[in-house]
Automatic annotation (TrEMBL):
KW NAD (keyword) present: yes
Reactions catalysed: UDP-alpha-D-glucose + 2 NAD(+) + H2O = UDP-alpha-D-glucuronate + 2 NADH + 3 H(+)
UniProt entry keywords in alphabetical sequence: NAD, Oxidoreductase
InterPro entries per UniProt: 6-PGluconate_DH-like_C_sf (IPR008927), NAD(P)-bd_dom_sf (IPR036291), UDP-Glc/GDP-Man (IPR017476), UDP-Glc/GDP-Man_DH_C (IPR014027), UDP-Glc/GDP-Man_DH_C_sf (IPR036220), UDP-Glc/GDP-Man_DH_dimer (IPR014026), UDP-Glc/GDP-Man_DH_N (IPR001732), UDPglc_DH_bac (IPR028357)
Sequence similarity: Belongs to the UDP-glucose/GDP-mannose dehydrogenase family.
Pathway stated in the Swiss-Prot or TrEMBL entry: Nucleotide-sugar biosynthesis; UDP-alpha-D-glucuronate biosynthesis; UDP-alpha-D-glucuronate from UDP-alpha-D-glucose: step 1/1
Species annotation: Symbiobacterium terraclitae
SMART domains: UDPG_MGDP_dh_C
Protein name according to UniProt: UDP-glucose 6-dehydrogenase
Keyword Amino-acid biosynthesis annotated: no
Highest taxon in the source lineage: Bacteria
SUPFAM superfamilies on file: 6-phosphogluconate dehydrogenase C-terminal domain-like, NAD(P)-binding Rossmann-fold domains, UDP-glucose/GDP-mannose dehydrogenase C-terminal domain
Enzyme class name: oxidoreductase
């Protein structure tokens, strides 16, 4: 089936490349000319494991890229909107890119019906408004994504469910058929239900994580092993083993943004929420807890391993490092930080030149080289051992495999001090102690 995908951010790129893999012909529409030029050269504008290979396989064949809407729509019966919906101060997402796209679609209106699939994350009520704006000749279908950054390709082909929210059964069937070949339950529902499934899922994950981190804090206070506690909790099938790994608090573009948007939705409808604001507060406190594990830092040199909000991505949006590193500097520490992928995006975020990764927003323009314009006291290095060498303490913030594989003796030799605060519980406390290190994990801090 010929399909147009609007927006070459991580969702649009992943969706487009994976739909090609399922046998569809896809035209990817992107307004950022530089991003289009990069794609046409066969370069992926984002770091997402496995995406490069898919793009290489399909670009110029099943996958075409254009800045021109009429070219994207040529022959297409379905357009999938994957444009960014970044948060605003109120918590409401900014839907201007979506409305702009729908306005363009209405003006380009051709003969025949076009199914407009809204994959962008939008507040309940948005698909209904989209249908009203587009009018006859268009069928709007909500089809939220559940792709995790870093494992987006895997998640596309192995989803727990496919959610299709539509007003017309024929349009719902057409969208479900896009995923033929994927083995997953399809939840066919109305617009608002589909929109709310997306928000409620991410909000639940955020709540579950804040709960996890609070249990870990209580375990720490008891000198108990919080990881064993949480494993024991997660074996209850009603709870499940996932999202029970304590850490520096959740980050990324999705959990914080969707929680804020759900709160905004409830506020507008005068529904009082107690649990979600508490989960947000707990997440902020978790950053402070991790920071406190370092003890007084004034005048010290702190090595930080990990800037990305999680491993497998160069995304630093709402990343723990973005809060913790400025706090360390404010407390008078010098920080030497490393990340295998996210140094450039971190520097861009910290120096206010924009985060390189946002959906189809202006991207790589003006992104400084790592190091340019960074705050005093902060150095970003491209070798993890250079960061550790001579530091008073090591703080691990992202669970990159190369950090987990670091031999404890080598850490002991590299550091001038002996403290390791491991916010991802990558290391075995006994082994670290044997290597002569003072080790403090999260939920494993004895
Ligand atoms: C999240 C959801 O998991 C996806 O289903 C959803 O599609 C996506 O948002 C989205 O809305 O687009 P993502 O933000 O990529 O995906 O990241 P997750 O893997 O869910 O991790 C979220 C945060 O929780 C990260 O900061 C991670 O480090 C943290 N985390 C996760 C933990 O600290 N412990 C855990 O056990 C799991």
């Amino acid at each position: 089936m010929p399909i147009a995908v609007a927006g070459a951010g991580y969702v649009g790129l992943t969706t487009a490349a994976c739909l090609c893999e399922l046998g569809h012909q896809v035209t990817l529409l992107e307004i950022d000319v530089e991003r289009v030029a990069r794609l046409k050269r066969g370069e992926s504008p984002i770091f997402e494991p496995g995406l490069d290979a898919l793009l290489q396989r399909h670009l110029g064949r099943a996958l075409k890229v254009t800045t021109d809407l009429s070219e994207a729509l040529d022959g297409a019966e379905v357009l999938i909107a994957c444009v960014g919906t970044p948060p605003t101060a109120s918590g409401a997402p900014n839907l201007s890119a979506l409305w702009r796209l729908l306005g363009d679609l209405r003006r380009q209106r051709r003969s025949g019906e076009l199914t407009v699939v809204v994959k962008s994350t939008v507040p309940p009520g948005t698909n209904r408004r989209a249908q009203q704006r587009l009018g006859a000749g268009f069928a709007v279908v909500s089809n939220p994504e559940f792709l995790r950054e870093g494992t987006a390709i895997h998640d596309f082909f192995h989803p727990d469910r496919i959610v299709v929210g539509a007003a017309q059964p024929a349009a719902a069937r057409q969208v479900a058929a896009l995923y033929r070949g994927i083995d997953a339950p399809v939840v066919v529902t109305g617009w608002e239900e589909a929109e709310l499934i997306k928000y409620a899922s991410n909000a639940f994950l955020a709540v579950k994580l804040s709960f996890t981190n609070e249990v870990a804090a209580v375990a720490d206070s008891l000198g108990a092993d919080g990881l064993t506690v949480l494993r024991g909790v997660g074996l209850d099938r009603r709870i499940g083993p996932h999202f029970l790994a304590p850490g520096p608090g959740y980050g990324g573009s999705c959990l914080p943004k969707d929680l804020a948007a759900l709160r905004w939705t409830a506020r507008r409808r005068r529904v009082r929420l107690d649990l979600l604001p508490a989960a947000e507060r707990a997440n902020r406190r978790q950053r402070q807890r991790v920071l406190a594990k370092l003890g007084p830092v004034a005048g010290k040199r702190i090595a930080v391993w990990g800037l990305a909000f999680k491993a497998g991505t160069d995304d630093v949006r709402e990343s723990p490092a973005l809060e913790i590193i400025p706090a360390l500097l404010a407390h008078g520490a010098r920080v030497v930080a490393h990340d295998p992928e996210a140094r450039r995006t971190f520097a861009a975020a910290l120096t206010g030149t924009g985060v390189q990764r946002e959906g189809s927003a202006p991207a790589s323009t003006g992104v400084p080289a790592p190091g340019a314009g960074l705050p005093d006291g902060l150095t970003l290095v491209d070798d993890m051992w250079e960061a550790a060498r001579g530091a008073d303490a090591l703080l691990v913030l992202t669970e990159w495999p190369e950090y987990a594989a670091a031999p404890p003796e080598a850490i002991r030799t590299a550091l001038a001090g002996d403290l390791v605060v491991d916010a991802r519980n990558l290391f075995d406390p006994e082994v670290m102690a044997t290597a002569g290190l003072r080790y403090r994990g999260v939920g494993r801090d004895r």
